[in-house]
């Protein structure tokens, strides 16, 4: 083992110890502040965790060397595909609280056992599922990691994995084609690149309009749930590190999706008396309303909904609520080209009398 591997391993140990300290401090701050107020040591714990992950990766590069490390990276698509395959089939759901053999899984899911066996063997070394009775028994049980692949688990990532493994994965495999593609017509052909996801699935509209189409309503619904599941991971810090209750109300959440931020805020009571207006395309607003209809009445009273299009040709046509005191935009701008981002921001800038809260990309 190279000497820099030892140095990295020592650094890792130091970081792991400091993470323990910041995690303990974050728990103390949480209990003192009641989960709201000034930025806490939750941020320090978050930073330490990510530094540890980076250091682990540096250690792997150092131990494996350039060849093995690069092959590992190139082949990681197989594990991603296995995770998507096993999750979208519902393997963890079928196993539930039982132990299930590969033969039973195969007949319940109507897929060839060989495919199941290969995909599961990609995930087992990563810690997903337990092979009961040891290696090769082909009888499986859920464990802490595989449980979050179940639809009913409170921490489920099933829709997030579906969205990333389907639209996300297929789009990324068209990056090269997207980089050289040019729109066939139009004076602004240079200005508007064709997104990889359009090439992958062969549609022309925006990905959100396409996902919301009536021929596959499940795509739009899955994306809504995926956002909720992905953001749940990050929401903890967002809720406690920003003084939400001090914002001027109502807050218009532009491209707010099904309101996953508001679900987390209102559940935690972190918004005080502040009310929210969720603005999104009509189909997403439909999904948002369904989600909120299942929440307690006290939470429902804190949100309202406006369907629209922040890229419509005129401000009036966008249907953006005008003259509200606060506009919030989170995890939206990264989906658009620079030119479109300028359009969206211009539309927000000309809504009079407001303050802005930009969260995330
Ligand atoms: C990545 S999601 C983020 C959702 C939400 N802000 C959150 O943090 O959970 C992007 C959102 O932008 C919405 N969106 C896309 N095009 C839009 C448009 N033209 N007008 C309004 N919203 C749009 C999508 O429907 C989707 O809900």
Automatic annotation (TrEMBL):
GO terms for biological process: methylation. Keywords: Methyltransferase, S-adenosyl-L-methionine, Transferase. Gene3D superfamilies: Vaccinia Virus protein VP39, Winged helix-like DNA-binding domain superfamily/Winged helix DNA-binding domain. Residues 200-348 form the O-methyltransferase C-terminal domain. One of its GO terms (molecular function) is O-methyltransferase activity. PANTHER family: O-METHYLTRANSFERASE CICE (PTHR43712:SF2), PUTATIVE (AFU_ORTHOLOGUE AFUA_4G14580)-RELATED (PTHR43712). This is O-methyltransferase C-terminal domain-containing protein. It comes from Steccherinum ochraceum.
